[in-house]
């Protein structure tokens, strides 16, 4: 993905294959484009409001047509137990899609991700490389639909 437009486009493509109940880890360094990807995804789902990083709020909630979407950013967590204390587990259910930035900050407390989407900065900070991997049957189905176009 050479630029921001490509990151937004990947988010839009991903939006077309999301199903309620999915949990997607968003992995990458600061500035890699994780929130940009979420913005592209939400725009494709019809959300017109402001899409911001949940770095300080920890979670942003977006009601979209087919499901509830929760965008988490765990960057500020000091201890995985903070995940349990925050009470976020209830959002991981069959009616929601959960996107989690910095999931390693809650290692051992989060459920198994269906999909890991890793964004890496390349070409002296100009480009991005996206790598997607599945870890569950639902994740495999999601990525298969992404590859075949839905």
Q: Kindly state the mean pLDDT as a whole number?
A: 88
Low-confidence stretches: none
Radius of gyration: 14 Å
The biggest beta sheet is recorded as: 6 strands, mixed
The helix/strand series, from N terminus to C terminus, equals HEHEEHEEEH
How would you describe the oligomerization state of the chains in this entry?
single chain
- Gap from first CA to last CA: 20 Å
List how many beta strands DSSP finds.
Answer: 6
Report the portion of residues in β strands.
Answer: 25-35%
Tell me the structural class: alpha/beta
- Tell the overall outline: globular
Task: Output the strand order for the largest sheet.
Answer: 2-3-4-1-5-6
| Helix amount | 25-40%
Count of helix runs? 4
Would you kindly provide a written description of the structure presented here, covering whatever features stand out?
This protein is an alpha/beta fold and 150 residues long. It is 27% helix and 25% strand. It has helices spanning 4-15, 34-44, 81-86, 137-148; strands at residues 23-27, 59-63, 68-73, 96-101, 115-122, 127-134. A six-stranded mixed sheet has the order 2-3-4-1-5-6. Strand 5 and strand 6 form a beta hairpin. Helix 1 crosses helix 2 (34-44).
Short characterization:
This protein has 150 residues and is α/β, with parallel strands linked by helices. It is built from 4 helices and 6 strands.
What descriptive keywords fit this protein?
150 residues; six-stranded mixed sheet; alpha/beta
Blueprint (SSEs and pairs):
Elements: H1 4-15, E1 23-27, H2 34-44, E2 59-63, E3 68-73, H3 81-86, E4 96-101, E5 115-122, E6 127-134, H4 137-148
Parallel strand pairs: 1-4, 1-5, 3-4
Antiparallel strand pairs: 2-3, 5-6
